[in-house]
């Protein structure tokens, strides 16, 4: 069977099928995606049970009904068992988000639910709860000239001498069609994520930052019902709390019994980067103001507390 090697989040992954819009790697694979029977961990080893997930040390199992089963093993292998109709778009989305995030955690990396962008040589990551507008903000900043390292999964490495670095994921972002139109990005190459979903992978190859880069700031996005923008630095023990909330699938991490490693990672990151909270209205009429504020305050300099 043919194999295709791609550089994703700092590691070379071998796929049994071709992946569009991915950076090709000539290195020996660190991780193999394989087709075969995906087995759950032994019941006695399971430490976390979710609606479609079982987590044990070194082994996480996902079951998407009528799509696929996945076993993520030891940070080196993802076994994929395709079920029913071959919905390759849905399969790839899950593989490149949930499975990849778990695998990177197994490899002792800190993984955040965050987009990371570069402007003026400074890297800022944006995180927040579901529906906070992270991908839409990425599209707006892309339109204003920023480059993107990652849209959803930020893989962080902390080293004593160099501080925190974030690794690029893949050269596209996920946006709803309505957002693509409003941000005026229709001219870019797109690929529909699922046949019945009006959401697309939008190519950003010309503005993709392909090298691991120092992370300067993590911004927590917090929509509110006021008409103003407000940004403040997070300090003290709250830094650990916010970083925990920004972490990828914390319950699964605990199920893999990697709590101690995760706490060490976020504690080290807390001492390395600037952490801020940006409160802003969900109002398309204020998007230009939002982009100006972010570019001027986060990609340039940040005072202790500022507001518009």
What does this protein look like?
By secondary structure, this protein is α+β, with helices and mostly antiparallel strands. It has helices at residues 88-106, 134-143, 177-183, 238-246, 250-255, 259-270, 287-297; strands spanning 4-8, 11-15, 31-35, 48-49, 53-56, 59-64, 68-73, 77-82, 110-119, 122-127, 147-150, 153-159, 163-167, 172-176, 190-194, 197-203, 213-224, 230-233, 274-281, 305-307. The chain has two domains: 4-107, no CATH class; 111-307, Rossmann fold (3-Layer(aba) Sandwich). It is built from seven helices and 20 strands. The strands form three sheets. The chain has an eight-stranded mixed β-sheet with strand order 1-2-3-8-7-6-5-4. Strands 9-10-17-13-12 form a five-stranded mixed beta barrel, surrounded by four helices. Helix 4 crosses helix 6. The chain starts with a strand and ends with a strand.
Q: Order of helices and strands, N to C?
A: EEEEEEEEHEEHEEEEHEEEEHHHEHE
- CATH architecture descriptor name of the largest domain: 3-Layer(aba) Sandwich
N/C terminus separation: 57 Å
The poorly predicted ranges are 302-308
Shape: globular
Q: How many strand segments?
A: 20
Major sheet details:
8 strands, mixed
């Amino acid at each position: 069977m043919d194999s295709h090697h791609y550089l994703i989040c700092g590691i070379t992954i071998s796929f049994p099928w071709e992946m569009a819009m991915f950076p090709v790697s000539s290195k020996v694979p660190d991780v193999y995606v394989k087709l075969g029977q995906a087995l759950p961990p032994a019941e006695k080893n399971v430490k976390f049970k979710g609606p479609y997930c079982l987590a044990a040390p070194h082994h996480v199992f996902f079951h998407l009904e009528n799509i696929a089963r996945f076993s993520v093993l030891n940070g080196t292998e993802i076994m994929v068992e395709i079920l029913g109709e071959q919905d390759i778009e849905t399969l790839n989305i899950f593989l490149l988000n949930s499975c990849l995030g778990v695998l990177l955690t197994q490899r002792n990396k800190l993984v955040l639910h965050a987009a990371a962008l570069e402007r003026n040589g400074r890297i800022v990551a944006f995180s927040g709860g579901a529906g906070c507008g992270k991908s839409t903000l990425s599209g707006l900043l892309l339109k204003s000239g920023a480059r993107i390292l990652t849209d959803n999964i930020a893989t962080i490495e902390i080293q004593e001498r160099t501080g925190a670095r974030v690794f690029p994921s893949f050269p596209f972002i996920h946006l709803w069609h309505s957002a693509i139109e409003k941000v005026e990005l229709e001219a870019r190459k797109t690929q529909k994520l699922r046949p019945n979903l009006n959401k697309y992978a939008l190519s950003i190859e010309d503005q993709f930052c392909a090298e691991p880069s120092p992370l300067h700031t993590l911004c927590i996005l917090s929509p509110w019902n006021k008409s103003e923008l407000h940004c403040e630095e997070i300090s003290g023990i709250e830094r650990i709390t916010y970083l925990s909330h920004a972490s990828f699938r914390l319950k699964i991490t605990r199920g893999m019994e990697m709590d101690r490693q995760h706490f060490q990672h976020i504690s080290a990151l807390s001492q390395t980067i600037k952490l801020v909270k940006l409160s802003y209205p969900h109002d398309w009429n204020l998007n230009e103001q939002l982009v100006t504020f972010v570019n001027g305050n986060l990609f340039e300099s940040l005072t202790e507390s500022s507001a518009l």
